């Protein structure tokens, strides 16, 4: 929105979505985010790591919510992928079976 990524607005969006789902009687929720937008150099995207950390806390505090951040590995630096993996409870590579607990 407005050509800028605002991590606080997104955290509020996800928190509101989770709260509304509960009010609507939805017992489980699956959130999925395609992350290739980060490579478009959108202003505010430099706050990705802190956004992911806050989002991970939000999802962890809501056991009936599962979140998946989809990072096309060929489109991201090793540093970005490493930072993301370190921020989350677990990671899975889509073209293989194992889940890597962290």
Q: What does it look like?
A:
With 102 residues, the protein is α+β, with helices and mostly antiparallel strands. Helices cover 39% and strands 18% of the residues. The chain is built from 3 helices and 4 strands. It has helices at residues 7-23, 48-60, 78-87, and strands spanning 29-34, 65-70, 90-92, 99-101. Strands 1-2 form a two-stranded parallel ribbon. The chain has a two-stranded antiparallel ribbon with strand order 3-4. Strand 3 and strand 4 (99-101) form a beta hairpin. Helix 1 (7-23) packs parallel to helix 2 and helix 2 (48-60) runs parallel beside helix 3. The chain is globular, with a radius of gyration of 14 Å. Residues 96-102 have low confidence and may be disordered.
What's a concise summary of this model?
With 102 residues, the chain is of the alpha+beta class. It contains three helices and four strands.
Proportion of strand residues: 15-25%
Radius of gyration, CA atoms, in whole angstroms:
14 Å
Report low-confidence residues grouped into runs of 5 or more.
96-102
Q: What is the number of helices?
A: 3
Which series of helices and strands comes N to C? Answer: HEHEHEE
**How do the strands of the widest beta sheet line up side by side?**
1-2
Structural class, by secondary structure, is alpha+beta
Largest sheet: 2 strands, parallel
Q: Tell how many strands the DSSP assignment holds.
A: 4
What gross morphology would you assign?
globular
Mean of all residue-level pLDDT scores: 80
In terms of quaternary structure, what is this?
Answer: single chain
Distance between the termini: 33 Å
Helix content range: 25-40%
């Amino acid at each position: 929105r407005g050509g800028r990524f605002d991590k606080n607005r997104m955290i509020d969006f996800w928190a509101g979505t989770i709260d509304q789902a509960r009010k609507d009687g939805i017992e489980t929720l699956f959130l999925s985010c395609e992350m290739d937008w980060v490579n478009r150099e959108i202003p505010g995207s430099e706050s990705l790591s802190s956004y992911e950390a806050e989002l991970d806390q939000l999802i962890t505090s809501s056991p009936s919510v599962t979140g998946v951040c989809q990072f096309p590995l060929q489109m991201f630096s090793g540093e970005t992928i490493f930072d993301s993996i370190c921020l989350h409870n677990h990671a899975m590579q889509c073209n293989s079976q194992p889940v890597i607990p962290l």
